[in-house]
Amino acid sequence: MIQAKAELQRALAAAVAQLAPDAALTPQFESPKQAAHGDLAITVAMQLAKPLRSNPRAVAEQLVAALKAQPAFERWVSSLEIAGPGFINLRLAPAAKQAVVAEVLAAPDAFGRQPANGQKLMVEFVSANPTGPLHVGHARQGALGDSLCHLFQTQGWEVTREFYYNDAGVQIATLANSTQCRIKGLKPGDAGWPESAYNGDYIADIAADFLAKKTVKADDREFTASGDPDDLDGIRQFAVAYLRHEQDLDLQAFSVQFDNYYLESSLYTSGRVEKTVKALVDAGKTYEQDGALWLRSTDYGDDKDRVMRKSDGSFTYFVPDVAYHIAKWERGFTKVINCQGTDHHGTIARVRAGLQGVGLGIPQGYPDYVLNTMVRVMRNGAEVKISKRAGSYVTLRDLIDWTSRDAVRFFLISRKADTEFTFDIDLALKQNDENPVFYVQYAHARICSVLAQGAAQGLSPEGADPALLTAPAELALMLKLAEYPEMLSSAAASLAPHDVAFYVRDLAAAFHSYYAAERFLVEDKALAQARLALLSATRHVLRNALAVLGVSAPESMVRAEQQENA
Question: Are residues 510 and 487 in the same domain?
Answer without folding.
Answer: yes
